[in-house]
């Protein structure tokens, strides 16, 4: 029957995520060498730079920003939190939502210290790194919710989660390709999350290029749909987005640390038609 095969694929992906380990994932991807703020070719500073420039351009504005598939990470909203009064974080897994809540509540127990990230983004904004505490306070103030999401549902969030007009901006990093069994599913998921955005709103989409798996914990091998730049651009177009900018990072050998087979990262800034 029509529609059953995509559901089976999404269910298989959901099963892969049951052993996702936030602490291990953070360790693999968000500590040196991938998050080394002293080296020019490190992947995390590249992502933070793209996000900083996307918001500095001056064309992204509004009240509400939604981050789709936040995982256990916060780096992707460190620039955005200065522009938006409300930020909603979302993830499929409760373990990830719990990790985000730990940081928000500021009672300790977080699996990663986000201080160097906050300091780095302050420096990008021309502020003293010591102002990181103000940025942390601002982020804690503007995050109004941490919600469950499923990008494979036509309505990924609970029906009353957002105002009827939709969000003003969406951010999503390394979620769609890591949650989708194939390209068609990736593209459908992009359409689903596009439904959360108001017309004219912006999407900042970051993702892996040509990746076929990553480890979400020791022995937790999660399949990824390999996508290339042209497929990302096509999918944006098919789903009613106009591409504003695409930036690409190619992983140097030092960033290939055995936790995935990613070869590059794309950063797309697009506007919903
Ligand atoms: C590779 S991680 C990315 C996490 C984070 N955004 C980052 O930049 O590192 C992929 C994330 O997608 C989430 N995910 C998996 N299936 C999903 C689904 N069906 N809907 C939404 N998110 C999903 C996982 O829980 C995980 O947090």
Walk me through the structure.
It is built from nine helices and nine strands. Strand 6 (213-215) and strand 7 form a beta hairpin. It has a single domain (4-272), classed as Rossmann fold (3-Layer(aba) Sandwich). The chain has 273 residues and is an alpha/beta fold. The model has no long low-confidence stretch (mean pLDDT 96). Helix content is 34%, strand content 23%. The strands form two sheets. It has a seven-stranded mixed beta sheet. Strands 6-7 form a two-stranded antiparallel sheet. Helix 8 packs across helix 9 (229-238). The longest helix has 14 residues, at 43-56. It has helices spanning 4-16, 22-29, 43-56, 94-105, 115-124, 132-142, 176-179, 183-194, 229-238; strands at residues 64-68, 86-91, 143-148, 167-173, 197-209, 213-215, 221-223, 241-250, 264-272. The structure holds S-adenosylmethionine (SAM). S-adenosylmethionine binds next to helix 7.
Secondary structure blueprint with pairings:
Layout: H1 4-16, H2 22-29, H3 43-56, E1 64-68, E2 86-91, H4 94-105, H5 115-124, H6 132-142, E3 143-148, E4 167-173, H7 176-179, H8 183-194, E5 197-209, E6 213-215, E7 221-223, H9 229-238, E8 241-250, E9 264-272
Parallel strand pairs: 1-2, 1-4, 2-3, 4-5
Antiparallel strand pairs: 5-9, 6-7, 8-9
* CATH homologous superfamily caption: Vaccinia Virus protein VP39
Could you say which structural class the secondary elements and strand pairing correspond to?
Answer: alpha/beta
Principal-axes geometry comes out as: globular
Tell me what portion of residues adopts beta-strand conformation.
15-25%
Ligands bound, unique: S-adenosylmethionine
